[in-house]
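Q: For a teaching session next week I want to show students how multiple molecules come together into a single three-dimensional assembly. I've collected the sequence lines for a complex. Could you give me the predicted structure tokens for the whole thing so I can convert them for display?
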Amino acid sequence: MARKTIIPFGPQHPVLPEPIHFDLVMEDETVVDAIPSISYVHRGLERLIEKRDFVDFVHIADRICGLCSFMHSMGYCQAIEEIMGIEVPERALYLRTIWAELSRVHSHIFWLGAAADAFGFESLFMQSMRLREMVLDIFEATTGGRVILGVCKVGGVRRDIDSDALKGIVNRLAALKVNLEEISAVFINDYSIQHRLIGVGYISKEDAYALGCVGPMARASGLVMDMRSLGYAAYKYLDVEPMVESAGDCYARCLVRIREIFHSIDLVRQAAEKIPEGPFDLKVKGAPDGEYFSRIEQPRGEVIHYVKGNGSRFLQRFRVRVPTFSNIPAMIKALKGSGIADVPNIILTLDPCISCTER
Amino acid sequence: MAWFKRSPWILHYNATSCNGCDTEVIVSLTPLYDLERFGIINTGNPKHADILAVTGSVNEKSVQALKNLYDQMPNPKVIMAVGLCAISGCVFQDCYNVMGGVDKVLPVDVYVPGCAARPEAIIDGVIMACEILEKKYAEWKKGRG
Amino acid sequence: MGEPQEIVPLGKNELMGVVARLYAEGYRLVQIGCNTLLAGYELNYSFDKDYRFKNLRITIAPGEEVPSISAIYQNSFLYENEIHDLFGIVVTNISVDYSGTLYRTSIKTPFSVDNVKLPEAPKQKKTEGP
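A: Of course. Below is the structure for the complete assembly, covering every listed component.
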């Protein structure tokens, strides 16, 4: 029997933009066990509800994560609105959907770049980052921020997008789509990429369900699970179609995300066509009294914002369960039995977002 | 001005950042903003790095990793605090597990403001870091000679 | 409007049986969360099947132990370790027990009853009598 060695992976690692630490128990070149250890990014922001009231807390929800910043504030606002029984104006719901889908596009393009970096395709990484800028430009033009948007608030949104700007967004996305088709063809057809990704990090459909996978990770294993089908915000008026692959390996996860980018671009177009005229925010009176689990679909999967209030301005409890936390058991499962050279690939195709995970 | 005699390499560490500043650091190095055209490269190895770009405020556990990285970097070296969290803690300064800005544990040379710090600001910070690096290098050489 | 919230209050002893039944019915574990009350804790076990959300809730006193459900749902170990580290609740028989090293925080058990100050409910406005 070969001797077991332990290789530390992280917290600072060239392919990881974020600190997560793994103790990889190795037998020769094969990983036999992986023990994650987190809390490098633990801030304890759930307890900030003691210092900020429920309206101000939106800004903190915005800063839980920089890649899905808008989604967090949207989920939080949705929970508060459900408790207080606020009917958000239709236009605000549509605007939220548009920003949410744009967030998905930029997050997935960033992921494509990071994954290309992980398997050593430097020029593809650069091209992806270049294309991502087109989405960030739209953010900057419509909200003023590039990463942290700060545009969602309890009872609606802070800014409107006029119809000319909406047309501009759709046109820009059409241009982006042409460019994306070019680089996604590389991702799909390139021999060296297929060689690195096909059959690596396999998770079966049954395992994915039992281990609580969510988001692209679950859909790549053949589970039809997309919280957008719940019909929150304006998704009930749009044709949402979960992108499902069946192979369950790293390549399938890559394909799911690529197809989701194109689907999101289409959803933005649909929303821009259907958006009704009207007000985009409401004045909110009172304070939340009750509790609510709000579930929305982030780029990385299902996220839960739980809010509990007792009628005062300060909440009693805020909890967020993010998709990466739910995906870690599956990641450990995928790592077991893989080669050491595939470890960065497997971790990256999960699209880990550690700052969400540890809050 | 003797700034661009050498191209410094950047080591990026996320102390407790929210990813916003991290992506902006990467964006400032990749096309459109493209610091890499000056030979300024994001490296993963502290022994090759001249500038340590820290994003996010520090907590008890990330301090150990951060100090470890700092100690492994060769002299002269510059620390750049990127973003409001790294400067003061931003909205998270009241959290129980946040110690505050990076300057509480390590000597920071350049402060880059913004939440999230904009790529233009980061490029500005890197140029300031180059100046400081040049000065530190001259001092270090004098001390040796 | 929103998703229907099905919250089922349970006794601590019933928990394992109900969880095992949900597992047999094909529910997946969505999350385990914990709330601090004035004197005690409230644990929320959330499940989902075909977009149907179901939440089990047990209430315990400080110092009380909770059985782990990781024998039924193997992915619950992370949530249970989190609850142990942040709330100081002892969860017995976790399949992978970090024994307090998953979250290393500067203060111990930051969410425990001693540390969390809950906001007071606003005083009821006197309704004008007839």
